[in-house]
UniProtKB/TrEMBL annotation:
Protein name, as recorded: Branched-chain amino acid ABC transporter permease
GO molecular function (one): transmembrane transporter activity
Residues annotated as transmembrane: 21-45, 52-72, 78-101, 110-131, 173-190, 219-238, 258-279, 291-311
InterPro entries the UniProt entry points to: ABC_transp_permease, BCAA_transport_permease
One term under GO cellular component: plasma membrane
Keywords of this entry: Amino-acid transport, Cell membrane, Membrane, Transmembrane, Transmembrane helix, Transport
Amino acid sequence: MDILYRIVIDPFVQMVATPDFLIQVLWEGFVAGVLYALIALGFVLIFKASGVFNFAQGIMVVFAALSLVGFVEVGVPAPIAFVLCLGVMLVLAVGVERLVLRPLVNQPDIILFMATIGLTFFLIGLGELIFGGEPKTMVTEELFLPTGSSVWEPAGLGPDGAPGFILFQHLDVAAAAIALALVAALGFFFSKTRIGRALRAVADDHQAALSVGISLNQIWVIVWFAAGVVALFTGIMWGARSDVSFALEIIAFKALPVLILGGFTSIPGAIVGGLIIGIGEKLGEIYWGPLVGGGIESWLAYMIALVFLLFRPQGLFGERIIERI
């Protein structure tokens, strides 16, 4: 009974006893969830255009962030370096379309997936050749991102009715605001514009899209460039919270359980899935982690995704595909 109490009841008792700490945990989970959603958005854009999971999105995050820091290290002002990185992402998008996607039109999805794996290792090798393998510091202040923190002391939310104490890192506030704005802008662009409708047509049937005059090549360049822009913002935000290194690729693959929860083709699903994973990880690590020695944050997202795969494999917002034989 003692074990059952510690698992089922005690965590909620702790939440009620220290509501200010609960709000702090929820806030940190919210920030992480928004950034997870931003990562997932890059995967969603590629999947909507080609129907293939882009294995290279994680290394694109790393490559974009390293490019930005690399430009600044050679003396380029940070705002100009940011614009140059957008150019790098455009060149990458054109190169992928010309050298990878165009020769593989109408090939099975597994062929395109394997091509993105090859692209991953190419970018890893190119990144190590150009930038080396040492972690680098994100140029946070040069990009005019805020630093420091603010404290909120709400009355009555501390233990025994004392004033509460909640810390907000200014960088986290900026990261959440920028990520939400980018997700909203891209969501509007790809759901309400002519390009967005063309993208959905390409995702449904390549040949049908070509037959009505939609340029498959242009759509792929646009969507890969958009994914590159997302990768750049993701690399900046995550790199500002830690070092810029190839370890960021591991963080990027947290988008996989986010996609499973939200659906591989849904932009709103990426947002909701990211928030579920981000908040769920923080709550699990803080309140249930001590019961298993900690480390829940590294695997809880994948356990949640496994449960969704068993009961709703298309995700919360994914489309159920019915094939009649």
